[in-house]
Design a protein that fits this description.
Elements (H helix, E strand, L loop, with lengths): L11 E5 L29 H13 L4 E5 L9 H8 L5 E6 L4 H10 L4 E5 L5 H8 L4 H13 L3 E8 L8 H10 L2 E7 L16 H9 L5 E2 L9 E4 L6 E5 L12 E4 L4 E3 L8 E2 H6 L5 H9 L26 H4 L2
Parallel strand pairs: 1-2, 1-10, 2-3, 3-4, 4-5, 5-6, 6-9
Antiparallel strand pairs: 7-8, 8-9, 10-11, 11-12
Length: 327
């Protein structure tokens, strides 16, 4: 069992398969990253991921989600999915949706039931502007493909003021006729993404907007869930808000993050990292490193800032870019 000093049990591991992506969303993948930025990264091999996962599972991990970058662009992604499917965990994937049609069969074979797809606009031109690529039609087709094959589909929308908050009602309307589970995510600060409190459209603002058109029901909380979930009667799907910035959920956090270069982060916003991969390659026991990393977790948002948006100075936050952490 992996427990921190505040009594939180950590049984959920998010693994970044790669820090590369075929899209260029600026809130995740800063445009000013220099050419060759990722070239020197020593990434975990499939064998190493398998070995590390076996240790985490033996330490109590019950859920694993593969992230990126875009995890499905990794050449051995199918092999990694097959390897991890042997463990007694709930296995999930977060993807930008572009390559889902190439993986639908392996998703079925490996027992994946839930897929998270990133989509920040339902308007093709706006989505292309956010992602800097023209993949909107394919992503929509692949979301429909997942639904046709009875996958539980969560659609992640990063809400940015004066960018796409005007589409929130359209996303809720989408849940009327399709069993999609939309998650509105408050814009978060990471290295290079030009975050400011003025760009955050808060949970409160979202709910005020949604309530102007819809009557909804608050769904029961799920233990350790980051999302506040809601349901419009008569709709096939649901919507939720991940209120990291305005109403953090740190008290119930059970997450750990393993970057593609094998560094363990005990919080999305943690300053410190533990080199799990380096220790493994040098033949050291990594169990004690994992336990110590979890034990030293800060109580709140990596100890770097508070939920007072106006007082948050993004320039003082010490962290990687989102693409270099893993979603």
């Amino acid at each position: 069992m992996l427990k921190d000093s505040y009594g939180r049990i950590h049984d959920y591991l998010r693994i970044s398969l790669t820090d590369r992506c075929n899209l260029r969303c600026t809130y995740c993948n800063p445009v000013e990253l220099p050419r060759g930025y990722f070239a020197g990264t020593k990434r975990m091999t499939a064998d190493e991921i398998d070995k590390i996962v076996s240790i985490f599972v033996n330490s109590g991990v019950k859920k694993i989600r593969l992230t990126g970058g875009e995890p499905l662009i990794r050449k051995d992604a199918k092999e990694i999915l097959q390897r991890l499917s042997k463990y007694p965990v709930r296995l999930g994937v977060t993807t930008n949706g572009v390559f889902i049609h190439e993986f639908i069969d392996i998703f079925k074979q490996t027992g994946i039931q839930s897929v998270n797809v990133s989509l920040d606009s339902l308007m093709k031109e706006k989505n292309n502007s956010i992602t800097q690529r023209d993949e909107f039609d394919r992503v929509i087709r692949n979301i429909n493909l997942l639904l046709e094959n009875k996958f539980y589909v969560k659609v992640n929308m990063v809400v940015m003021k004066k960018v796409n908050e005007d589409e929130i009602l359209e996303f809720v309307e989408w849940t009327k006729h399709q069993p999609v589970h939309v998650r509105f995510i408050e814009f978060m600060p990471f290295s290079g993404n030009h975050w400011s409190s003025h760009k955050v459209f808060s949970h409160k603002e979202m709910m005020e907007l949604i309530s102007s058109k819809y009557d909804f029901i608050i769904l029961p909380e799920i233990k350790n869930d980051t999302a506040k979930r809601y349901f419009v009667p008569g709709h096939l799907g649901t919507f939720a808000v991940i209120s990291t910035m305005s109403e953090p959920f740190c008290s119930g956090c059970n997450r750990m993050r393993l970057t593609t270069d094998g560094k363990l982060k005990n919080c999305l916003f943690s300053k410190s990292e533990v080199d799990i991969l380096g220790a493994l390659r040098n033949g050291h026991d990594i169990v004690s490193l994992i336990k110590n990393c979890v034990a030293t977790k800060e109580e709140f948002l990596g100890g770097q800032f508070t939920s007072r948006l106006e007082g948050t100075d993004a320039s003082k936050i010490q962290n990687r870019s989102m693409i270099n952490i893993g979603g």
